[in-house]
Amino acid sequence: MIPRYSRPEMVAIWSPETKFRIWYEIEAHACDAQADLGVIPRENAAAVWKAKDVEFDVARIDEIEAVTKHDVIAFLTHLAEIIGNDEARFVHQGMTSSDVLDTTFNVQLVRAADILLLGVDRVLAALKTRAHEHKFSVRIGRSHGIHAEPTTMGLTFARFYAEMDRNKARLQAARAEIATGAISGAVGTFANIDPAVEEHVCAKLGLTPEPISTQVIPRDRHAMFFATLGVIASSIENIATEIRHMQRTEVLEAEEFFSKGQKGSSAMPHKRNPVLTENLTGLARLVRMSVIPALENVALWHERDISHSSVERAIGPDTTVTLDFALHRLAGVIENLVLYPETMLANMNKFRGLVMSQRVLLALTQAGVSREDSYRLVQRNAMKVWEEGKDFREELLGDAEVLAALSEAEINEKFDLAYHTKHVDTIFNRVFGA
Amino acid sequence: MIPRYSRPEMVAIWSPETKFRIWYEIEAHACDAQADLGVIPRENAAAVWKAKDVEFDVARIDEIEAVTKHDVIAFLTHLAEIIGNDEARFVHQGMTSSDVLDTTFNVQLVRAADILLLGVDRVLAALKTRAHEHKFSVRIGRSHGIHAEPTTMGLTFARFYAEMDRNKARLQAARAEIATGAISGAVGTFANIDPAVEEHVCAKLGLTPEPISTQVIPRDRHAMFFATLGVIASSIENIATEIRHMQRTEVLEAEEFFSKGQKGSSAMPHKRNPVLTENLTGLARLVRMSVIPALENVALWHERDISHSSVERAIGPDTTVTLDFALHRLAGVIENLVLYPETMLANMNKFRGLVMSQRVLLALTQAGVSREDSYRLVQRNAMKVWEEGKDFREELLGDAEVLAALSEAEINEKFDLAYHTKHVDTIFNRVFGA
Amino acid sequence: MIPRYSRPEMVAIWSPETKFRIWYEIEAHACDAQADLGVIPRENAAAVWKAKDVEFDVARIDEIEAVTKHDVIAFLTHLAEIIGNDEARFVHQGMTSSDVLDTTFNVQLVRAADILLLGVDRVLAALKTRAHEHKFSVRIGRSHGIHAEPTTMGLTFARFYAEMDRNKARLQAARAEIATGAISGAVGTFANIDPAVEEHVCAKLGLTPEPISTQVIPRDRHAMFFATLGVIASSIENIATEIRHMQRTEVLEAEEFFSKGQKGSSAMPHKRNPVLTENLTGLARLVRMSVIPALENVALWHERDISHSSVERAIGPDTTVTLDFALHRLAGVIENLVLYPETMLANMNKFRGLVMSQRVLLALTQAGVSREDSYRLVQRNAMKVWEEGKDFREELLGDAEVLAALSEAEINEKFDLAYHTKHVDTIFNRVFGA
Amino acid sequence: MIPRYSRPEMVAIWSPETKFRIWYEIEAHACDAQADLGVIPRENAAAVWKAKDVEFDVARIDEIEAVTKHDVIAFLTHLAEIIGNDEARFVHQGMTSSDVLDTTFNVQLVRAADILLLGVDRVLAALKTRAHEHKFSVRIGRSHGIHAEPTTMGLTFARFYAEMDRNKARLQAARAEIATGAISGAVGTFANIDPAVEEHVCAKLGLTPEPISTQVIPRDRHAMFFATLGVIASSIENIATEIRHMQRTEVLEAEEFFSKGQKGSSAMPHKRNPVLTENLTGLARLVRMSVIPALENVALWHERDISHSSVERAIGPDTTVTLDFALHRLAGVIENLVLYPETMLANMNKFRGLVMSQRVLLALTQAGVSREDSYRLVQRNAMKVWEEGKDFREELLGDAEVLAALSEAEINEKFDLAYHTKHVDTIFNRVFGA
User: Fold this and answer.
1) B299 contact C CB<8A
2) Which residues form the Adenylosuccinate lyase C-terminal domain (chains A, B, C, D) (predicted)?
3) Are B215 and B255 in contact (CB under 8 A)?
């Protein structure tokens, strides 16, 4: 987790304070359930709630852990200091440390997913707004980086919207993957604790009981979660790459917003670098790098080994914090992106109508000219544009053989941009709803 | 794709014959839709279906491609050879090669997903059967490779079932991800073809129209698809790893089936190697390796670049073929796995009751002995087992201080395996339904 | 291995014929060494060489394997068919299948490395030629895709040369990593075979004896090998990316060679797509994807498990074949790359001298103008260029306040491109030698 | 970077204090070189050294950066505060921020490599010691987790030594990869600064001048560096996996050291978990995960984009800190590993001599018994061992048909462990030198 690439809301999820608070809630709810079952006295369960509004003393817990060498025991000792040793004696009864740790990790991931969903929503809102603003801002579509046919800037935003909307659904599914809890004991048999405790605690924490756990919650869930974050990161890279291309000096159809005072270069006004989207490209790599270790974490030995733990201590916070930051950085970039529709048109016209040559070719064929002749006619006029810098439409209008097949109006119609935008509404309806 | 790790059903999906057949269907359905729209003559559309039952001549198409240097044109030329040049002249009108190629790739992936789902079902059926057979075959649960508390072999199978069942749901979601088609032209604007064509073709092929495409179907879909296969592969590794552990000489709770004639070693009967599950471990790595390039494929430049294409030519077939093979190999391993319940018990008893020491400790505490004293009592008897090879229960029954707190019956009860299996039914109901 | 992305020389290394030939050589040399040691009769060793020029019958070996279920035994049986059962009876004595298989795999990798080195050499030669051709073809250097300061096309080629030259050294090191052989028996103790056999066979095959092996040659070697190929692939992506940028419509400083007949688009002469470099970008992903499984192959269980085998059956051929093809495709692209020095200059002048503004700023400061005033002077003239399309030099020459600090000659000197190319020779000497 | 998995020496390399100190040294040495060249006054260069022993005020620099939004400028401003504005005015002249940042990153990586090399040395020393201690501690070699032939514990340590020794050489090569510096200006042309400055600064910092740089040092170097760390991590996983296997309850040939007070479980003395090596397995995954992003960082756009930066801010510290910690944790585990030679022998004898069956088979054949008969004889005695728990040697000695071919002495000789250890000295000489 790199401070400059983090937002406090997400960082807070991974603080010791948050962790201990969740541990506490698990223990307190478990005591209630144990009291319901008659396993522990009701008053002991009730006593645990005395700590409800107490802020746990992280330094004190660390101090105890330095002695006990066990984090959960250290916490329980501190809890006993607060609610009383006698009152605390049934806390954690029948439970295993992993019951607390694994369930807590999932609570943290669920909260992280909720924050990430807000980030996705912000990106979606920005994309939707910009898509509608530039619904009919015509720009050249490019395949292989080479001019192809006209499209619109709005369609570009709309396709990113559709992609990010899929990511939203994926993230919701990923959230459901890890929204489970387990309180099932040392090897998952509930030998020392009734399944009702797990059910109660999970209900209180907004989790589903893990249908079958071992000492741990199965890690295929987490693999799927991090794989999904990797896909979202790749979509961020996708959008960032488009913007980086648009901002490059020779294209300049868009620029990341530059505040008044901000300088890309001390003296060169054109030196406004797309540093935010370049940064997003790097952040995408960082998010993606958690996918492989998360997959490698699935095959734990027997009822658990602890190899996953160090991995998750790193990728749990790092990946969610980085992705969260990236989503908001991306949203900001899109919200404030400065767009240059005139440059879009100017770029499109770089080849003076040549991008329309296929339409002309098709028209000639449909007008009865043979495919070979059509091609020859288009080609000879295209070459004058390409080699001598002529205007394609004017050349066609001056070519008798062409005029023999197509009227002036028909030729002009081939240069009508509306031809290319006639289905924009249809597509927008598909993407944003009617 | 390695022949020895492939099944013909899946290989067939990726054959040139299958590919051309799908191309043909797309073109033929597109012609129907164009005729419906009045764009092309009905008889031309009808003529295309003359090739319905014709087997395309792959060698001939390759021959044409060697000249035209364009695969789709080569195919269309061959099609014209079959249905007649004149009849074929409206085929592909308004379409772009990518319309055919991308939609075909998704049809192949959908079919691959369907076959994979059958493989998952076979694994699930095997796991379910074995889980019920060994529902109460008690074995020691192990954390960190070290004996912990008793569990049952059935629970082991049941947790793999639950994991694989999640994978089934994930695979169904992944199938939906790539079950889209696009016939939207050079940059996705439908400039030269009506969206109705896309709708018709997709409906006929069992696909959903891609809401918004560029020249290509967006690759976040494929990234999600391959990421999901990577998760499934990791679950296969998980199961394979458990079996490899169980078969190792010192554990020997299970063995891959060895046919009568098969030899692990010419003279050593114990040399039956878990080569299938080791192989599955390697195959899991192979499946997983497609995840990163699939993620890297998402950020194509502008309306498309072709960098994804070579990647998909490799990982499309290789990953689905390998995973398919792995699922069936795994199913076979599970179906035929030879299990040794007596060895499970013998292993559990390696430490002569010591795995029950925590229950005794708890019982002493609950009987009013202080935590420190309880620990001391358990520890001193445990040490005799550990260091002198005594039996834990017998030692306890001969310890006056223990007997002062617990009756003989109470002590014996602590060694009752039923204590550990009492919730197996509950868990099975959660996993397999009541 | 995808046929269209493969070259026959590299494919041949991975053929069954090659594999059996290497097996044969290992067995024959081993017999010689065994005879030298007096372990087997000299005449039996000599007899093995009768098969020296025989082509092994792969179909026959497969046939035998179908019965024996063991590839090495099938080969040995076939060998006995050729040289005689009696003569063959000491072949393979004291050896383990892995001795043959692992040593063979390394021979194949060594040969693959040698072919890859030729590919790297071809790329280097092409880069060197083009670097010298365009040593002083000035083009704008770009950071963040935005114009920065002038550089030369030759420097671009030179830096790719330097990078690829490092890759050559890395590849040589990687070749040394896997240039070892092992004939050390079932667990590497030489219990049944003298180390002298290993030494003799390795010497004959151009390998170093593996200092200590188990049943297999340690896989950290192969991990390093494939990791190195991954780095080389990334350099290919680096060069490919530069070319793709140069070819994009708005930049057009270079183009992949288009043969006379080749068409990017039927009617648009500008539609020449950088499909080769896009393809190289994808191939780079394919090569890189072997790195992770190769790393995962290192931790085999005890003296070996067979999980690495399926991985290597795939990545051995696939990765070397793909990288080999990519190197030659890249070399071809560079050799034939069409460069447009006039467009380079035109692009550089897009902002009419603005890229020189930092030099002017520095000159003003050095002439005694305060930093703030210098900045103000440059900025006000830069803005006229930026907003009104004026020429930067002309504006400066017309600004009295600037002229008060700098003479006309001094101002003109700031626009001298030679200023930026004055160290090109120095750099070339560093890269190519004096 | 996770505090619990980090060592202060390595963490210190990545502190702001260290970073600013290196920045300072680069600037100060550059001033010296500039003075040597006559570009700036000698006294200004000398004045910079006034800050030689000053500790930079990180908080103050952060404060300035909050205003200037530029880290290098903030630092230079702070430096001016220390040495005087006038004295400082030539600092950084002709340089680009990246000159400082990239050279600094490489200095940090070089220092990190040096610390890592110490870690590797400690691991090597530990392995060497344990190898010699247990040179002839016989244990069973296992392929596929199944008993194969005897080997020795010393050979296991020796092979890890050889592997780690290769890693040392790789790490030294990786160190050389990134031991370069660049002071070459905005696009690497030295337009504004003489190459002599780069040479001087690099010499002072123990670096080689980068032969050709752009705005940045080429990232193939860093890719190779991190790929190498990934290989080393995989070797750590390899060793850790062996130890985890050795410690599992059923094998118990070795245990991680447990300090007197340490508890694996409150009451079960056998519950000593190999948590350190499990942790190392996870840490290996964390180190490896930097390989792919480092490879993706190579293809920067043109003369640089900044996408690599965020990646390196994370993986620079995280990967080196984690690997450093892992090396020392591993060294500690090996140094203190508790080994159980008696258990090794007991495990080997689990099948009462059956692991020698192949030697007996070979002896029978060599004694003139046909292959088929030899196999039958061995098999029938082996089966009595396998199925009835008999002792293999005794059975053979009681089998008249066997005795007809082999004398009692000959049979006994087949059970001599010295047969398997006779080349241990040879192998040790290869690994450790004569």
Assistant:
1) no
2) 352-432
3) no
